[in-house]
Amino acid sequence: MEKEIVIVLLDDFADWEAAFLAPALRTGVMPGHTPFCGTKYMTPDGKAVRSLGGMQVTPDCDASALPGNCAGVILVGGMRWQSDEALRIVQLVEEALARGVLVGAICNAASFLAAHGFLNGVRHTGNTVEMLKKWGGERYTGQALYEERQAVRDGNIVTANGTGCLEFTRECLLALGADTPEAVDASYKFNKHGFCKA
Known about the structure:
The protein is an alpha/beta fold and about 200 residues long. The chain is built from six helices and eight strands. The strands form two sheets. A six-stranded mixed sheet has the order 2-1-5-6-8-7, with helices on both faces. It has a single domain (about 5-195), classed as Class I glutamine amidotransferase (GATase) domain (Rossmann fold).
């Protein structure tokens, strides 16, 4: 059975934050490379959501359970990670971590992880440590493990700030073993610097 990556979207999600990761998984990190796995889009209730840019996405599933062949859960940032609907994702993150499945969170989704205590024992980043403290309150005790970087990978958790989508993509691909480190690095440099420096 083919592995799948579950990409979690809420209303007002940030269009760009999984825009490099999803195609790299489905079609290969570079042209001519082997695809790594399929992707499945999930929303808390299985209903369509709309991005900050106005793109409407009809999901494949709701947040009732992770697929048995799930290799990773990617939480895409946006403006609704403090909502009641976001609370439905807590159990999925718990399940993923218990199964040793990658959890990636970018932008406000990283703040969501902080708010539910998931970042207290791992090196991580986010939009700022002040934001993580604000969202997390007493539940966030991982300030000493915060790193001022675009993306951070520690064990099965990858976090990134809202401008770190390429670094987030790179760290998720490396964590998943989606291709060789050299191919992942080449893909990162190509997308970061374009034809002129590639």
